[in-house]
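[step 3/7] fold_predict: job queued, chain A
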Amino acid sequence: MTTDFKSIPIIDISALLAKCDDPKMAEDPGVSEVVRQLDQACREAGFFYVKGHGIPDSLLKEVKSVSHKFFDLPYEEKIKIKMTAEAGFRGYQRVGENITKGIPDMHEAIDCYREVKEGMYGSLGKTMEGYNQWPCNPQNFKELMDVYIRLCTDLSRKIMRGISLALTGSPEEFEGGRAGDAFWVMRIIGYPGVPTADGPGPTNDIGCGAHTDYGLLTLVNQDDDITALQVRNLSGEWISAPPISGTFVCNIGDMLKIYSNGLYDSTLHRVINKSPRYRVCVAYFYETNFDTAVEPLETCIQRSGRAKKFERAVYGEHLVSKVLTNFG
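[step 4/7] structure written:
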């Protein structure tokens, strides 16, 4: 359950990663300390930074650099990969096209999903069938993002092993039928700066309206020099999540809230870019298996007072319901 946190904790997860696939990882004192910190952060804020994650800082920077280069292109170039329903809602969307709670968001983006082949999930997956649309310019865009997605997927799996230990005492709760074939989403997002006295700018300052994420775990790679991400605490205060070079900002999503039976909350957050400079953020979302039916874990039901607080939800249905209402 979220508290009146005033800042977001920083967790060095290197000890967890070093032992993550060791059958005796739970007995390691370093792992136990990381797990304790993850549990505290998920209970109190639903947000935390990770360092010691093993993904090179040079790659984090290069991913943001090529994203800036794409968004700097003329609209006519960007629209070549325009998002369409036929592409499974993958591709580029212009500023104001993404909608949060009925209000246009002041950002542009490339939306990517794990590719879904025709018939892969039957009628459940029909909306999401398609292949990602990658720009030809910058030339190395697709190759770079493929590497980045692979590393983020592996990192997320390892963090979830730590969270699984925190919730149940076993590192394997979010593998197999729950997230052993995890779906993923990635949004490459550009937020225009506030207008200067003599220049054009966005019509409002809400880069992305208040929302929670859908799945298990989000990894946010944000520009190092612009503070724009804000997280709401229990009292309704908006707490800034300033960029810390070389880290990811992590937060938990709706599916983990259900699995934990509310022990962990998917915290409301928003983006307001008050800088005159353009801001890029690359958000990677690690999800359950697409067709998994998510319901509270028995261990979490016992720990949270023996009452089941949430009904089962199929992740793919939850995702599709959001996708179909998020675009104007």
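[step 5/7] annotate
Residues 48 and 276 are 27 Å apart (CA to CA).
The longest helix spans residues 141-168.
exit 0
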